[in-house]
Amino acid sequence: MNMNELVSASPLPSGLMAGWPAALELGYAVVQGRTVPVHRRHQGPLRVQKHFIDGHGQCQHIVVHPPGGMAGGDRLTLDIDLAAGSQVLLTSPGAAKWYDGFGRASSQQLRVEQQPGSLLEWLPQETILYAGSVVALDNRFQLQGDARLLSGEVMCLGRPASAERFDRGCWQQGSEVWRDDKLLWCEHSHVPGDSPLLASPVGMGGHSVLASLLWAGPALPPELHQACLALPCAGRAAASQLPGLWLARFIGDSAEAAHHWLRACRDLIYPFSHGRAASQPRIWAS
């Protein structure tokens, strides 16, 4: 089969060109026992690099935003569709930087549709919110049947290494996970730069990095849950097994420490979630 026949790279409708939006649609399916991209449409500066298929048939793709950062008024939209049985890992080449918008809001909307038997890893690199950025992030995962999801993110508020605190702007985020049209998980955050939650012990406690790892699938065995809790951590970490999903959280002051802990959790649960030992995308080592 000629793979060029499977990929659509036509531009999105010109009516979406107001301002400087960027949009990306990706579709995946199983072909001859391997997951391959079968649909791709893009508008503006949002692309994927050439895909890589590992020895287990999983398709790994790197989502790239060539400008390297989002200015005020920028809008990113990602629509991802996994056909039945497909296995996909999506990551990014580096940190997503959201600059001071000088009063102009910027946004990212992620929409994922997963058919039965599919397995998605959504594991971008860290997101850095500069002081003054006004950012709205919206993630919605729709799982059908026994589809599984492993989603992780690392949020950095301000740039402590540059003596910059997130004391201006606003971070707003909504995250939802649905299975068979029933809501499994819903979380909405609204954190202005001057929010008391940033310093409160029931909030960020003065720390600047917040990370999470979410597994939507069969409940983790108690011993695996405890093994994740026992991992060394350069910050504060916790995890909870909830109906239909497992959630781990990290709070600290280092994106590197957050990635180290979340990826260690991923390595531990991978034989349970994927039925094999974990491997890491090559881009994470660069």
List the helices and strands and how they pair.
Blueprint: E1 21-31, E2 34-43, E3 47-48, E4 52-53, E5 59-64, E6 69-70, E7 75-82, E8 87-91, E9 96-98, E10 105-114, E11 119-122, E12 127-129, E13 134-143, E14 148-157, E15 170-179, E16 182-192, E17 209-216, H1 222-229, E18 236-242, E19 245-252, H2 255-274
Parallel strand pairs: 1-7, 5-8, 6-9, 7-10, 8-11, 9-12, 10-13, 11-14, 12-14, 13-15
Antiparallel strand pairs: 1-2, 3-5, 4-5, 14-17, 15-16, 17-19, 18-19
Determine the strand fraction and express it as a percent band: over 45%
Please give the number of β-strands: 19
Work out the count of structural domains: 1
Radius of gyration: 19 Å
N-to-C order of helices and strands: EEEEEEEEEEEEEEEEEHEEH
Low-confidence stretches: 1-19
Tally of separate helices: 2
Sheet with the most strands, sense and barrel status: 12 strands, mixed
Mean pLDDT: 91
Give the termini separation.
Answer: 33 Å
Q: Portion of residues in helices? A: under 10%
Q: Which structural class do the helices and strands define?
A: mainly beta
Shape: globular
